[in-house]
Amino acid sequence: MTSRRTFIQQAGLITAAVLAKPLVSCSALKAETGKIGIQLYTLREQLKGGVKDVISKVAQAGYKEVETYGYSRKDKFWGLEPKAFAELLKANGLTSPSGHYGFDEFLSTGKENDLQSYIEAAAILEQRYITVPYLSQQMRSVADDYKRIAEGLNKAAEICRRSNIGLAYHNHDFEFEKFDRTTGYQILLGETDPALVKFEADLYWIVRAGLDPVELFKQNKGRFVMWHVKDMDKTNPKINTEVGAGSIDFKQIFKEAKTAGVEYIFVEQENFSIDPYQSISKSYKYVKNDLLKLKS
Predict the structure, then answer these.
(1) 2 lies in a domain?
(2) Tens digit of pLDDT for each residue in 235-294?
């Protein structure tokens, strides 16, 4: 979308190295069933006390992958430069296939400065996807807004593709609100290039919006390369609980992993009724022992 700043030499070298690698295939999850990830937003309160301790405890809980969030040119990854954060992950036996990066500026103005900084950071972490996490309310009032967003996603994905990084879009429930006979999500699915723009299905928000994830996967085969596995409290659907302890039928959903095209799964939980580290451990064990073996 307009000017492109020159990469720093180190990031350029790393990007070149990434270019030598093929993009991850749709069989990645099937080939690496032991790799369960966590979206670090789950532990946002704990991260205020220091990223190193959080990363260590995530690894101790059994996770092998993390999805980042909140990166900026000013604050980096919780105060760490991308290279230092990558080294921290490596020291704890972790990798980061995806990161959530803010896209309001790019989608509103077309300015590429932030996007280019995301690509640099993602290349250093060897992330396979840059993921759009959220759309501000003022950006999505009418159907035409979603059409403009879809156009912006196509352009962003093409820019990412040049560095061999994929682009994905993460949903909440607002995308499923009706505009006459369609929804914002249908517009995004229909007007983005399937070869360039992928989707990260937040299973909790899809269910909370009243949809069946399995039917969504069948209607849009291969588009959902990542999942957020987040359960719904049985008594209060507005809050989360540990995976396997809530009302979402994850066993049926995981049977359709191949249909969805899923490559990576990330446990996420936005609120807790028990100690957060006990919670993420319980979710990890359920996903590993009860769900991964069900994949089609």
Answers:
(1) no
(2) 999 999 999 999 999 999 999 999 999 999 999 999 999 999 999 999 999 999 999 987
CATH number at residue 131: 3.20.20.150
Domain tally, the chain: 1
Segments forming the whole domain that contains residue 247: 9-294
Exposed, middle or buried: residue 126 (CB in 10 Å: 0-12, 13-18, 19+)?
middle
pTM of the model: 0.90
DSSP state of 291: I
| Whether 204 contacts 240, CB under 8 Å | yes
The verdict on residue 4 lying in a domain is no
Reduced to 3 states (helix: H, G, I; strand: E, B; else coil), residue 131 is strand
Residue bearing tokens 């990161």: 99
How far, in Å, CA of 284 to CA of 107, rounded? 35
Report, in angstroms and rounded to the nearest whole number, the Rg of the chain calculated over CA atoms: 18
Contact 119, 8 (CB under 8 A): no
Helix (H, G, I), strand (E, B) or coil at 103: coil
Cα–Cα dist 21/218, whole Å = 30
